[in-house]
Amino acid sequence: MGDSRHQLFQQFARDQWAGFHKGIEKEGLRVDGNGFIAQTPHPRALGSTLTHPRITTDYSESLLELITPVCDSTDAVLASLYDIHHFVHQHLGDEVFWAASMPCGLDGDDSIPIAEYGSSNIGQLKHVYRQGLAVRYGRMMQSIAGAHYNLSLPDSFWAQWQSALADEQPLQAFKSQQYFWLVRNFRRRSWLLMLLFGASPALDRSFVANVRHTLSPLDSSTWYGPEATSLRMGDLGYHNNAQASLNICFNELSTYTSTLAQAIHTPWPEYERIGTRRGDRFIQINTSILQIENEYYSAIRPKRTTHRGEKPIQALDARGVEYVEVRCLDLDPFSPVGMSAPQIDFLDLFLLDCLLSDSPKIDDQECSHLDDNFKDVVNRGRSHELSLVDGGGSTNVQDAARALLERLEPLAAKLDGLSDGDRYRQALLQQRQKLEDPSLLPSARVIDAMNGAGQGHRDWVLAKSREHQQAFRKEGLSPQVQAEFERQSAESLAEQEAMEAGDTQPFAEFLAAYLADE
């Protein structure tokens, strides 16, 4: 069936292919001139973090999140990301936008300010959710940054694809089914992205102060994993005992939303012991395994744009899957915006192949093997001795990676033929070169660059961040783009003020209604 799906796509004509829709959400810390996490509030010139469509914060007040619109090309989405960075760099003053996923200098939990979103009930809900993350996991995790890549295919493709497969269900049901088909294969292969794009093999010693770990010293200020690709995606980053108890099923939409809903409604004893309040102050939304769906950490999520106040599960159940969100990407510290064009093109190719390849349902045994493969590449991906579980046997990681890249060649050629270019074959070639010369892997490049500069993690990333900032500040935005960003900032502040003025319901009542609304 997998080969037949590829053969069906090979028959697509140019007028049947409208390309990909794509967007990027890029996180990054604001830091002071010494490479320490910023203690200042979100710059007012950047607008309201609650309502601005392009510039907000993630878990921490210091952790910016920049959001592109949905674009129809790699060049367009990168141009948008560059524009947002230009505007942000104008308003950071003496602060710097941190270029790496693992954080700058920290001084324990208290040094990491939790994001604030104003006094409206929605704003307070976002803040309380983050307070809950702090009491459940500690704040250190809230200082880690990454890039999320969002991809969808247009309805014109889905109609053609449904016809090619002779499928007769409603179009949206078909789309949801096919996106989960893609997700299952992504889970089987996501280890490859950690090998090719993992770029966080080292961290500042302040991140693991008083924490037991197995890292090695790079210098007096830096710990690293000699064979690691992404400490961000390892146990030092997104890991939690309560979530380890979950068995979220990615086989189809109904099981995915039902298992997530169960987690949101299943109490966890430790969280019950903490409670939801300290005095009159709310410190978590509820005492369940998950407060809300977004608390579940996974390398990929099926997504649907939500209406204000709507829960993600409600949106998915009501309107089906709209796009997939790839969440396991480290920031590329060598790129001024954390991502590059060849990387984005490869992700498109990789994700399309996940859709076109055979994708049986994942049983519990395979699920365990997939998780182990992912963890092994995160922790030891640059070891030539590492083997991955594959079916009933095991395969050397380099051999498995080469086999996956080789199978992408016909698809890359097809996509290039549909667009009269060679960008997909070039993106694929760049990844193959990393396997032939492992010193080209981002995780290896980071260690080599630190050693070459004679700098630890904090000093090297700070220097790289300043280099990017200086380049942005030398170039200006066009007057039209500048004016548009200023308009968005002003309008977002006005919108937040209007929301706060219009909220008369006490937050406790609002939260009770939110939790009761299924």
Automatic annotation (TrEMBL):
It holds the Pfam family Glu_cys_ligase. One of its GO terms (biological process) is glutathione biosynthetic process. Its EC number is 6.3.2.2. It is an enzyme of class 6 (ligase). Residues 474-502 are annotated as: Disordered. The keyword Acyltransferase does not apply. GO terms for cellular component: cytosol. Residues 8-377 form the Glutamate--cysteine ligase domain. Keywords: ATP-binding, Glutathione biosynthesis, Ligase, Nucleotide-binding. GO terms for molecular function: ATP binding; glutamate-cysteine ligase activity; metal ion binding. Pathway: Sulfur metabolism; glutathione biosynthesis; glutathione from L-cysteine and L-glutamate: step 1/2. Gene3D superfamilies: 3.30.590.20. Belongs to the glutamate--cysteine ligase type 1 family. Type 1 subfamily. HAMAP family: Glu_cys_ligase. This is Glutamate--cysteine ligase. The lineage of its organism: Bacteria, Pseudomonadati, Pseudomonadota, Gammaproteobacteria, Pseudomonadales.
